[in-house]
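Attaching the record inline, Q. Sequence:
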Amino acid sequence: MKKAVTFLGAAALLLMMTYTVANVIVRSITGTPLPAAVELTTRWWMVPMVFAGWVIAHWAREHIVVDFVVDGAQPRVRAVMAVINSAILIVFLALLAYAGFAGALENQARGEYGIDTGWPVWITRYAVPLFALVFIGYVLSDGWRALTHRSRTTAAHDGTPTDSLPEGAAVETGATHDH
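Structure, as predicted:
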């Protein structure tokens, strides 16, 4: 899944950069831009690129944080901050999905088409709510994995026999080993 998202974002970025550079070169030589430069960039390539980058940053836990607050917080406070962060992200994504869906319905009802390409605008407008809903699903599944992992780790620390954990479940002991 990570490779697919990375490939999608990289492909969108490559297409956008290539067409933009070609547009600049053609415009400086001929004085006329390539057709649909703005439309293709903003409606077709920017959306998957932005969402792919956002998902990859979420996977890598590369969110913008205030280091002295996060680093100085106790583990339980960090866990609460992670839950609050995820809740805010889900609310924001839900609002984005709702507004994107409403906008897509409006574009479809009006029958809008791109000036340069002649392609229906509403097709790309559905990409925003779709990507937002998929991202919400990922954030929820990520939270579920964290909760189940935490319960397994807690069970191992509480003296619960580790053989009562599901087969293949990893148990963190907090020990570091040099292997």
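Residues 9 and 53 are 7 Å apart (CA to CA). Residues 75-110 form the longest helix (36 residues).

More tomorrow.
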